């Protein structure tokens, strides 16, 4: 029988199941990604076991016969795969965080806390080089606020969420904003988008559309990678522009950049 591990964190139930390269010793030796992740995963597990409350990281050999039903249930198709399970396993999300120990620890501590955090001062949100979704409300109650928190819970593995009573505390503070409104901050295109639609399914679609850049740069900067992934995963038509840049020694010091253009972004928004 497959082993499942559940632990209580506040009022929710969480577990992290990772399927590493435990198909066989020979396969493990061939899997560079698995070999790289394994010690980082173990280190993170030790640190998080000391957290208050503890976060348990489990690993499952998805190729063992007794675990194949579990692997099928959670759609494990490759190694290594990491899943986050919430509410006794009724909600399953892909792990989309870093794969080194410190990053895993930081990501999972945030994941085990509230889906949306309250902004109480202008210093609470300072990093605007990533997508942040903030709800502005006259009070933290009512249907629209509850729908926002439901959205945050649904999309928490993809985006950071926050909420506030005071729009002046928003990044690039804006006293003209009166809630309830959802503002999506992003480091590209128009820099922010406001939504006043509070149906959860509709709002989720609007957030997804607004988080795809019209133009993104494909280079070695890791800060660009999440946007490049979203760009390629979108159904929109795409144009790729290759720009060659040459240094003083033309061929010894050349580098290239790809500019990616999303043609249908504005029509689909």
Summary, kept brief:
This protein is α+β, with helices and mostly antiparallel strands.
What does this structure look like?
This protein has 269 residues and is α+β, with helices and mostly antiparallel strands. It is 29% helix and 25% strand. It is built from 8 helices and 13 strands. Strands 1, 2, 3, 4 and 5 form a 5-stranded mixed beta sheet that branches. A 5-stranded mixed beta sheet has the order 6-8-7-9-10. Helix 2 packs across helix 4 (101-111) and helix 5 (143-155) crosses helix 6 (200-210). The chain is globular. It starts with 6 loop residues before the first strand and ends with a helix. Residues 1-29, 244-257 and 263-269 have low confidence and may be disordered. This is Protein disulfide-isomerase-like. It comes from Nicotiana tabacum.
Helix content: 25-40%
In one word, what is the shape? globular
What number is the mean pLDDT?
Answer: 75
Number of strands: 13
**Structural class of the helix and strand makeup?**
alpha+beta
Estimated radius of gyration: 21 Å
Span between termini: 47 Å
Annotation field: number of helices: 8
Strand content: 25-35%
Give unreliable regions as ranges.
1-29, 244-257, 263-269
Order of helices and strands: EEHHEHEEHEEHEEEHEHEEH
Taking the sheet with the most strands, its summary is: 5 strands, mixed
